[in-house]
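Extended Data, panel c. Modelled sequence:
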Amino acid sequence: MSFLDHLEELRWHLIRSVIAILVFAIAAFIYKDFVWGTIIFGPSKADFWTFRMLCKLGELVNSDLLCITDLPYILQSRKITGQFTMHLSGSFVIGLVCAFPYFFWEIWRFIKPGLHTNEKKVSRGAVFFVSLLFFSGILFGYFIVSPLSFNFLSNYQIVPGIKNQFDIISYVSFFTTLVLACGILFQIPMVTLFLSKAGILTPDILRKYAKHAIIVILFVSAVLTPPDIISQVLIAAPLTILYQISIFISARIEKKNKKFLE
């Protein structure tokens, strides 16, 4: 295929991906009561699943500190187009998340024919594992990072008497940034897998630069999350664990490569 033919092929893959995103986005736009009342605003309510589980845990350990019964804040829209704009952007984010496996599959279909036979063997199951890690990160961000961060920020006061009145634009940006950041950052093991198979990464390199990696993780967590220490720690902690898992994956690949050469 010529270069223009490749571009034409890529264009159709992208068109089909965008159509899939739009289908889910339109569905999310139509069912706004469920999407906004249950999903997007869920982590900001005291009866959210995470808070109920924490309350049950508090009952088991005889502690009232874990039971969150109130989130003192007021959510409002300060712009004329605020609610409508957030309705559109929130629906698009929902569509992107739901259509992610198909979107990645379309991109992978475009890339895969250009790989060598051994590269195709190495990348077998890529769509499944990338999607699995992505949704694991999304669920972690949704059920752990978002509600705990929102609880911290809604209860934080510099001095008593200052009320927390959050704009809907600020809330949606906060929510989507946290959740999508977790979904993307959970891809660390897959990136390590491909780079180790390509011979670019080795377990020795990963161990040597482990301290540097932790600093990078903390920096990335600070950039991708709102400016509060709770959100940063909640993202940095699992990323550090994923980095250690990546070392294990790289070591297994290196071991298999050595056996193959022998």
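DSSP finds twelve helices and two strands in the chain. This feature is highlighted in the accompanying rendering.
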